[in-house]
Amino acid sequence: MAKVKLYGLLARLESRELPWLGKFLASPYFNANEDLVQLWGFLREVHPGYEVLDKKEVFQALFPGQAYDAKLLNARYSELTRLVEQFFVQQEFRREEPLQYPLRRSAYYRRRMYPQFSRECHRQAGLLEQQTGHIKSQAQLLAVYDALYYGRQEAASPEKGNEEAERAMKYLDRHFILSKLKYLADLFARKTMYKEDHTIRLQEAVLSEAAERKDKDPVVGMYYYLARLFLDEFSEEAYRRLWGLVQQHGKKLPRDEQAFFVAKLTGLAHLRLSYGENTYYQLLVEAFKYADCYGLLILDGQISDISFLNTCAVGAAAREFEWVREFIEKYKAYLPAASATQATLLGKAAVLFNQEDYEGTHRILQQASHWHPYYRIRMHSLLVRCLLGLHLDTPNYYRTLHNAVEAFSRFIRRNKSLSAPKREGYLNFGKAVKRIAALRSHQWRSSRERAALQEWVSRLKPLALRPWLEEQLEK
């Protein structure tokens, strides 16, 4: 059945917004068609499961006794869709007061109410100057001073105009530095993680100016140290220094800028973990707890299933088992409906696996299934590690483990979305698991053979999940 745009929009309504939409549709200022009020009244009864509705039933509820007319019903759906979109705009306009600022200024200016225009500009500037850590607020503040400087038809004195010009230049400098630092940090991060190369204009000038401001301006300092973290040779000391600044000053930033710092720091920590630097497990858990505390994990009423699974996997690996269980219970209701069950199962499996409850992990994985390659890689690799753990305890799982590795390897070879190094890393992981399992089947034979296998694994590159494999050989 074709997807109905209206249903997708209505499904995004928060429960508290349902009565607000009814009042919005009942307002003659926005809507003069009573049919749309009745249509919403019928649809609201099944919120958010609109897809189960039969359009013929909807038509009969709206136009009782009339023969079904798809064209007429679709016209009403289109009108309601337009009004729901307008309702969303009104909600954003109401929530985000800075969106109202330019319209309020222009309303006074267009009606030639210049004294009111000037007072409104100064009022808005005062509000925005309290948020000088915010990059977006800096841009809005510049717009206010620009309006004041170029729109003073009430013939203000030149001295006052000069004063506002000076203030505008001050905020223009800071806005430029903060914005440029954010771009620098992002591009340097991409260069580190994805081997991209970028030519960045005024790079040295911005870094030099930021270095002079960083101790007096904590927000500039945070963006400066983030940029330098990726630009200079990386060190754990530099990471911890920046993380300390984020913990101390991050709450002064708006949500999207806090999320920017957390995303960059967690991305870098994941990269260091892939190099076997396990101290970053605890740093990652701290970052996830920070994101949880300040509500950075929920976007548009949902948590990304990838963020959910990464948090569960890292927290379990750091042995924060109780916190991960609480995290799963807290956020499972916010997962996308299509993947909520499987993501929850995988999160619980990660806890059991890191507690070395391999039988419990195996039982959960037998219930899990998902078509997406991201899920299948996680499920396959966790199943292989679980079976190897069982085999190392009791060497009776070789055939089952061998079949699981073969199935995993076939899937990896068929998966065209993986990069060549990742594909080779997973295939080498499968080879290493089979050799470890074969040696364990023979009671490890001799310490010489075990040492030779350890040496072989250490030279195998690229190798996915290397730290875990090396840990198994050291037991």
Describe the structure concisely for a colleague.
The chain is mainly α and 475 residues long. It has helices at residues 5-11, 17-26, 34-44, 55-62, 70-95, 97-110, 114-129, 135-150, 158-194, 203-213, 218-231, 236-249, 255-274, 280-293, 305-317, 321-331, 340-354, 358-367, 373-393, 398-414, 420-441, 447-459, 466-474, and strands at residues 298-299, 302-303. A hairpin with a 2-residue loop joins β1 and β2 (302-303).
The residue ranges in which pLDDT falls below 50 over 5 or more consecutive positions are none
Alpha-carbon distance between the two ends: 55 Å
Rounded to an integer, what's the Rg over CA atoms? 29 Å
| Sheet with most strands | 2 strands, antiparallel
Figure out the total of helices. 23
**Coarse morphology:** flat
Strand content: under 5%
Write down the overall mean pLDDT: 87
Question: Overview of this structure, please?
Answer:
It is built from 23 helices and 2 strands. It has helices spanning 5-11, 17-26, 34-44, 55-62, 70-95, 97-110, 114-129, 135-150, 158-194, 203-213, 218-231, 236-249, 255-274, 280-293, 305-317, 321-331, 340-354, 358-367, 373-393, 398-414, 420-441, 447-459, 466-474, and strands at residues 298-299, 302-303. The chain has a two-stranded antiparallel ribbon with strand order 1-2. The chain is 73% helix and 1% strand. Among the domains are: 5-95, no CATH class; 98-156, no CATH class; 371-475, no CATH class. It is mainly alpha-helical and 475 residues long. The longest helix has 37 residues, at 158-194. The chain is flat.
